[in-house]
Amino acid sequence: QVQLAESGGGLVQAGDSLRLSCVVSSGTYSPYDMGWFRQGHGKEREFVGSISRNGALAYYGDSVKGRFTISRDNAKNTVYLQMNDLKPEDTAHYLCALDGSINRPLSIRAMDYVFWGRGTQVTVSS
Q: Residue 90 in contact with residue 37, Cβ under 8 Å?
């Protein structure tokens, strides 16, 4: 069974940076695309970023482009989300997810991700 565990969230001020980590506890990690999503209180789940299995391709949501960077270290079974210039509107529960298909192009749709972590809370004060 694939398990994902996020960490690195916290309470920061606007303009600060945070780096989230997502560790995958399964040998099936390395071949699969990974994604980050977030969900604010009372809001729908929003795509943040995704990265291809070899790290060569990454997509970002419009609201985070130029501020957030997704990366991965397959030797450590870990995906990262570097968040810079955080804004109060970035406040949300951040979740990482694993796409269980090896035949699908890198996706930005939550429905394509099969395994999910429990998430980590990021709160940005103004």
A: no
For residue 18, which phi and psi values (nearest 5 degrees)? -145, 150
114: three-class secondary structure by DSSP: coil
Residue 36 is predicted with a pLDDT of 98
Query: Could you tell me what percent of the chain has a pLDDT over 70?
Result: 97
In the chain, DSSP assigns E strands to 4-7, 10-13, 18-24, 34-39, 46-51, 58-60, 68-73, 78-83, 92-98, 115-116, 120-125
Cβ contact 125:11 at 8 Å: yes
Q: Specify whether the CB–CB gap between 38 and 18 falls below 8 A.
A: no
Confidence band of 28 (pLDDT split at 50, 70, 90):
low
